[in-house]
Specification:
The chain is 50% helix and 15% strand. The protein is an alpha/beta fold and 262 residues long. The protein has two domains: 173 residues, Leucine Aminopeptidase, subunit E, domain 1 (3-Layer(aba) Sandwich); 76 residues. The strands form two sheets. The chain has a six-stranded mixed β-sheet, with helices on both faces. The protein has a two-stranded parallel sheet with strand order 7-8. Helix 5 links the parallel strand 5 and strand 6. The longest helix is centred in the C-terminal third of the chain and has 19 residues. It starts with a helix and ends in a 7-residue tail after the last helix. Bound molecules: adenosine-5-diphosphoribose. The site of adenosine-5-diphosphoribose has 25 residues, from strand 2 and helix 2.
Amino acid sequence: MPPGIADRIVVIEGDITKQKMDAIVNAANPSLMGGGGVDGAIHRAAGPELLKECRGLGGCRTGEAKITWGYRLFARFVIHTVGPVWKGGNAGEDELLESCYRNSLALAELGNLHTIAFPAISTGAYGFPLERAARIAITTVLRFITYHPAIEKVVLVCHGNAAYDLYRDIMEGEISSNRDYGMAQALFSHLSMIEMTHSIRFRNRIEIVKALAPAVKNDTYALSAGISLNTWVAMAGVQGEVTVPREILDRIRESLGPSSTV
Ligand code: APR
């Protein structure tokens, strides 16, 4: 049984510098030369070598992310990202904040890191309203981990009980209404079974699940999709690394339409 959603995204109250994760995320500024808030706390805990490495990075644009070693921190790596300064909400702040979370997760996955902790990016000195930022953080992380099983655990570290209570309430609401996660995990399980049966590996696993998940309403639909995929693999006589063509995915998704029965 794949890990449940509640095992892979958690909210805690505490100090991000104390988190024993593969990476912790720093809410930095474009210079990457340190600052106050969580930036200051991370640099203090990591020691001077962190600033030295940051000097060589050439800064970071808002919404983007760069990685360094963690030095004296418990975390092996620090992913520095620059959140948007709040300007009233009509200057693309939501999209930029979403990019901070998505790019940091993508960088962690690229580095074969499996556990990552985030602070509440932009909600301090940058003035981003906490509830709005929390919703963006939670929905962006949920969407990413739904389709990227390599990220095993994301910890959202809140500083103070008020932030923690807010994050927890939003998290409970998002998880209870989230349907895609369970269906995506069921599809990943079927892909794994097909790979074992035929001694193959799907090169475009994430694309396959993203293409089929929206039409998969329950486990029966997931099984139907698995059977269709298995049939294609058997008929195509494919071996080794396999990329399922887009038109096959579209055909399977259409077969799952409302009238499909198993
Ligand atoms: N652990 C976890 N969260 C923390 C910690 C900590 N040790 N210290 C502060 N926070 C929280 C704050 O309470 C806030 O909710 O991190 C969130 C982000 O606040 P800031 O650190 O002020 O970051 P941000 O709002 O993104 O502003 C970035 O501030 O420190 C400077 O160099 C930084 O210029 C940049 C700007």
